[in-house]
Write a structure and sequence with these properties.
2 domains; 4-stranded parallel beta sheet; alpha/beta; Rossmann fold; 6-stranded mixed beta sheet
Length: 369
């Protein structure tokens, strides 16, 4: 199974972009948006790569033995990948997850034999529970379990572990660069744990310094944005900046940080399914929304790359619940939303000495309104 990891395909979104009537031709024609389909990995997500790498490197260091209990906080995909690998290798695995995780993903964890630690109140509807507080509770639960298990516990801690980003430096970044013939004018990545940002992003920026790197997070997440509020797109948001994200910002490798409303992320995922046949989750929807907005604003960009984080089937109930009664999920509706988002971002003039990261926050609030 593990030999099937990587070498994931890239699909063009021309079937969607060709229907955007206001997308202008640049000097190279219309911008082309390509999505790397990480859903074809074992474990069905991009997180399979760092999960395998983090556990492999821990084995080499002697941090894991047959009696080890692996403990990790996750919004879903890392936990599923670690559950899969732990099942193959015979390790006990305790994923700490919250009530906003789709039921299909909770079931997957249990199918793989994971001993699920669920935080949040199961008697309160998930959409009424605050994502920030749930993530704080997850972190506290990991610390408690590690204390209780003592020397038998090992927490990979994807939020600080360099082997998270290292997996993408070893494989995802090089694959993407080769598949696109070395031509990437812009790349959109979720900010999240910083694994993709500091792995794929750093690799691409080192090989194509002119590439524009845009980090995305949902409105309400406060990794690089400063807005308080709740969000549902759990896999791409946090209430603090993990070490890998801080490193990218300190090195000046994040050109811009955008906050995308949850409804835009879910809607983009639904429209993608209708127009391209690619059923992808809301984190990918968030990135594609940003990529489309960028293409409309910067038609001179020839090639825009996006990572298709995972398979969308587990999110279908959430996708449909997020659809308003008056939404038809047409390309025309999406195009109008994209222009409204760009107009909100342009409505605020960037201060003369403002850094790229952090300035977008006011525009994001306007876009949400």
């Amino acid at each position: 199974m593990l030999s099937l990891l990587g070498s994931t395909p890239v699909v063009s979104l021309n079937a969607l972009t060709s229907r955007l009537t206001t997308l202008r031709d640049g000097p190279h024609g219309r911008p082309e948006i390509n999505v790397k389909l990480e859903s074809t990995n074992p474990g069905w997500s991009v997180k399979a790569r760092p999960a395998v790498n983090m556990l492999h490197e821990a084995e080499l260091r002697g941090d894991i033995n047959p009696n080890t209990v692996i403990v990790e906080s996750s919004s879903g995909n890392t936990a599923i990948a670690m559950a899969m690998v732990s099942a193959m290798k015979g390790y006990r695995f305790k994923p700490v997850v919250d009530v906003k995780m789709p039921q299909a993903k909770l079931d997957l964890l249990r199918v793989f034999g994971a001993e699920v630690e669920l935080v949040g109140d199961p008697n309160v509807p998930p959409d009424e529970q605050d994502m920030v507080e749930l993530k704080k509770e997850r972190r506290a639960t990991v610390q408690r379990l590690v204390r209780e298990l003592g020397s038998d516990a090992y927490s990979p801690n994807q939020y600080q572990n360099p082997d998270n980003a290292g997996a993408h430096v070893l494989s995802t970044g090089p694959e993407l660069l080769e598949q696109l013939g070395g031509e990437i004018d812009a790349i959109i990545l979720p900010i999240s744990t910083g694994g993709q940002l500091n792995g794929i992003g750093r690799f691409i920026k080192e090989h194509v310094p002119s590439c524009l790197l845009v980090g995305t997070e949902p409105i309400g997440s406060t990794i690089l944005q400063k807005f308080e509020g709740s969000y549902y797109n759990a896999g791409s948001g946090l209430d603090y900046a993990p070490v890998p994200v801080e490193a990218m910002v300190a090195d000046g490798l994040v050109d811009e940080a955008w906050a995308v409303p949850d409804d835009a992320s879910f809607k983009t995922s639904r429209v993608l399914a209708k127009t391209t046949g690619a059923l992808l989750g809301p984190t990918t929807g968030m990135q594609v929304f940003a990529a489309l907005a960028l293409a409309l604003e910067r038609p001179e960009l020839k090639s825009i790359a996006v990572i298709g984080c995972d398979d969308g089937r587990a999110y279908v109930p959430d996708m449909m619940a997020a659809q308003r009664a008056d939404e038809l999920d047409t390309v025309e509706e999406l195009e109008a939303d994209l222009h409204a988002f760009n107009a909100a971002r342009r409505s605020l003039e960037r201060p003369p000495h403002a850094t790229a990261v952090g300035w977008e926050q006011s525009a994001a609030t306007a876009a949400k309104a």
